[in-house]
Write a structure and sequence with these properties.
The complex is a heterodimer of chains A (251) and B (353).
Chain A: E1 2-13, E2 16-27, E3 31-35, H1 42-49, E4 57-62, E5 65-66, H2 72-77, E6 80-82, H3 95-101, H4 111-116, H5 119-138, H6 154-166, E7 172-176, H7 184-199, E8 203-207, H8 211-217, E9 220-225, E10 228-233, H9 235-240, H10 242-249
Parallel strand pairs in A: 3-8, 3-9, 6-7, 7-8
Antiparallel strand pairs in A: 1-2, 1-4, 4-5, 9-10
Helix pairs in contact in A: 3-5, 3-6, 5-6
Chain B: H1 3-6, H2 17-37, H3 49-74, H4 82-97, H5 111-133, H6 138-158, H7 160-163, H8 175-179, H9 183-210, H10 212-222, H11 224-229, H12 234-260, H13 270-283, H14 288-311, H15 316-337, H16 346-349
Helix pairs in contact in B: 2-9, 3-9, 3-12, 3-13, 3-14, 4-5, 4-6, 4-12, 5-12, 13-14, 14-15
Classes of the chains: A alpha/beta (251), B mainly alpha (353).
Function (chain A): Probable component of a branched-chain amino-acid transport system.
Keywords (chain A): Amino-acid transport, ATP-binding, Nucleotide-binding, Transport
Pfam families (chain A): ABC_tran (PF00005), BCA_ABC_TP_C (PF12399)
Chain lengths: 251, 353
């Protein structure tokens, strides 16, 4: 059974139909790429799935449960986590705090354990700190650990955002343009990490414009146009498809 | 503190700051108890009275500024009507505990019971305002809180049968003054007791915001959507921060009523909100000690100006305007040269100039 099942998703903004009866399914363990020209509805698709906007019609099923219209925090707790196209950092917090924040189910996030400073809560925070520092080191940000994330460069922000979502250990990770504005070396680096995560069993969906990286990386490509599914299938076949070439290059 | 936490690198949370405040608070309350429960008495030289009076008001307002800082400094909630929770706490305590008020309700219940109800009443009002407005954008919350404060102020003035109109509620018990041997001892004990309470509050809030709890609050201030998308129920946290701040203000109001022996609308004007806001911004929002220090500066100015009035060539009412101008100028200077406040962290508040 598929992990994520999107059925007949429709969303309009005023007179603009951003998503038009879109149906896509993602199987557990898959690595799927989503592409399409500007305004094809890729980000709206992510926004509807991750609960940032509520779709007008259609159903989103995650892990066998209907999650249509569930708020982002509920989805994140149940294992569906996303990143943002414009990287959003908590700029007034340090790199460490950015990553630590994402740790799920912390006792110290409730009033009483925080006030009483229980030893259980302190042990938990110790474990969270270790895990966060490991992730920060894995993304080679350790020299910036105590830096405020507002001071980070564009590429470093992409890495930090990845580290932060990985703290949640998601079942399904939605990455919105993880390579945008990132130099080629770092692009390959991020791609390798995504591949590694997928090899370890994480299901990943990536929106990306960078065609070459994407076709090399993913198992399956989904092409959107004007809010609907244009073509889907094996990356090599999809990029040769005349409809896709037409959508991207014009007639 | 366990042995393990004392080992180098053993504790994950900033240790010491909270415990220090808790210790100071406990000691102050102990000394106050000695003054109240033994025949020991204190004498204050005449010139120092005003310091004690302003000092007591400072530690009461200190509770207000700590609560406001939890709401605004840490969570980013703009509350322009903080005085309403202070007033509701004070009126609830006064009406429940007063005996033989000139006008308005006076039920004569024990003051401890009244104090608990006062805190609960302010918290409930906070919950109602929060539940209806916290989902709105920041500026709407500011307007709703400001309006709530004005509505309640009008209610207090106009419902004379209930709230006593402009006279307010008289005959509120003064438990500290009753226990103390004389009025000087009472002032000293009140300052120590209330100061101790404020220090305890400072310690508890420091614990709260040093813990992962505070991290979530600061994340909400930075970017609520990101905080939600990593799985935090931000509405619940905003609600809690707002209600805790309101309850603290209600508690401060109750203490004020029990110290002052009377409440009236004149004690709960927008001036109170303005004073705590300026104190918070001056000291540096999101730093508990800094906001207290900022408040001390603003209230110290009040003290200085009382003495300055005696030597100034202008009349008292003109002098009041001069004082406002001075406060305004200080605020302008701080915002221009230290936008995060005197002890605030500019990177933490995202206001790098």
């Amino acid at each position: 059974m598929s992990l994520l099942d999107v059925d007949g998703l429709t969303k309009t903004f005023g007179g603009l139909r951003a998503l038009d009866d879109l149906s896509v399914a993602v199987d557990r363990g898959e690595l799927v790429g989503v592409m399409g020209p500007n305004g094809a509805g890729k980000s709206t698709f992510f926004n509807c799935v991750s609960g940032v906007v509520t779709p007008d019609a259609g159903r989103v099923t995650f892990d066998g449960r209907d999650v249509t219209g569930d708020p982002p925090e509920t989805l994140a707790k149940s294992g569906l986590v996303r990143t943002f196209q414009q990287t959003r950092e908590l700029e007034t917090m340090t790199v460490r705090d950015n990553v630590r924040l994402a740790a799920p189910d912390q006792r110290g996030e409730r009033t009483l354990p925080a006030l009483l400073r229980t030893s259980g809560m302190q042990d938990e925070e110790r474990a969270v700190r270790e895990r966060a520092d490991d992730l920060i080191a894995a993304f080679e940000l350790d020299h910036l650990r105590d830096e405020y994330s507002g001071a980070l460069s564009g590429g470093q922000r992409k890495l930090l955002e990845l580290a932060r979502v990985l703290m949640l250990d998601p079942d399904l990770l939605l990455l919105d343009e993880p390579f945008a504005g990132v130099n080629p070396t770092l692009t390959n680096d991020i791609a390798d990490r995504v591949r590694g995560l997928n090899d370890d069993g994480m299901t990943v969906v990536i929106i990306e414009h960078e065609l070459e990286t994407l076709t090399d990386l993913v198992d399956r490509l989904v092409v959107l146009q004007q809010g609907s599914l244009l073509v889907e299938g094996d990356p090599a076949t999809v990029v040769e498809d005349p409809r896709v070439i037409e959508a991207y290059l014009g007639e | 503190m366990s042995v393990r936490e004392r080992l180098p690198g053993g504790s994950v949370l900033p240790a010491g700051r909270a415990e220090q405040a808790l210790l100071v608070g406990g000691l102050c309350i102990l000394v106050a108890a000695v003054f109240l429960l033994t025949p020991l008495s204190a004498t204050i030289p005449g010139a120092l009275y005003v310091f004690f009076e302003v000092g007591i008001l400072f530690v009461i307002y200190g509770l207000l500024v700590l609560g406001l800082d939890l709401q605004y400094g840490h969570t980013g909630l703009v509350n322009f009507g903080h005085v309403v929770f202070f007033a509701v706490g004070a009126y609830a305590v006064a009406m429940l505990s007063a005996e033989g008020s000139f006008e308005g309700v006076a039920l004569g219940y024990p003051w401890m019971f009244a104090l608990v109800v006062g805190v609960v009443a302010a918290a409930v009002l906070g919950a109602v305002v929060g539940a209806t407005s916290l989902r709105l954008r920041d500026d709407f919350l500011a307007i709703v809180t400001l309006a709530t404060a004005e509505i309640f102020h009008t209610l207090f003035v106009n419902f004379r049968g209930v709230f006593g109109g402009n006279v307010g509620i008289l005959g509120v018990p003064q438990p500290v003054a009753d226990l103390a041997a004389d009025s000087d001892t009472s002032l000293v004990a009140t300052l120590l007791l209330f100061g101790g309470v404020t220090a305890l509050t400072l310690g508890m809030l420091t614990r709260l915001t040093d813990a992962p709890y505070g991290r979530v609050l600061r994340a909400i201030r930075a970017d609520e959507l990101v905080t939600r998308s990593v799985g935090k129920s931000t509405f619940r946290y905003k609600m809690q921060a707002f209600v805790y701040g309101a309850a603290l203000a209600g508690f401060a109001g109750g203490l004020f009523a029990l110290y002052n022996g009377a409440v009236a609308p004149g004690f709960f004007t927008i001036q109170v909100t303005v004073t705590v806001w300026i104190g918070m911004l001056l000291g540096g929002a999101s730093n508990h000690r800094a906001v207290l220090a900022g408040l001390a500066i603003i209230m110290g100015l009040r003290l200085v100006s009382r003495f300055a009035l005696d030597v100034s060539p202008v009349a008292a009412d003109a002098f009041a305007s001069v004082r406002l101008i001075v406060v305004g100028l200080i605020l302008v200077l701080v915002i221009r040269y230290r936008p995060a406040g005197i002890w605030g962290d500019e990177r933490e508040l995202g206001v790098e100039s």
